[in-house]
């Protein structure tokens, strides 16, 4: 996964709430990558409604 890549949200691990649950299946663009939980890569994804959230790589797929 790279910054600028379009991705689809496959699912998410933690109970982030309804706002994130509504993003499952949506397509967004990776805006930033960072280390999450001390060792795993995470990605900040921006959606067409201008909202942003972070996801682990295994929660995303290429769109």
Automatic annotation (TrEMBL):
Protein's organism: Pseudanabaena biceps PCC 7429
Annotated protein name in UniProt: Cytochrome b6-f complex subunit PetP
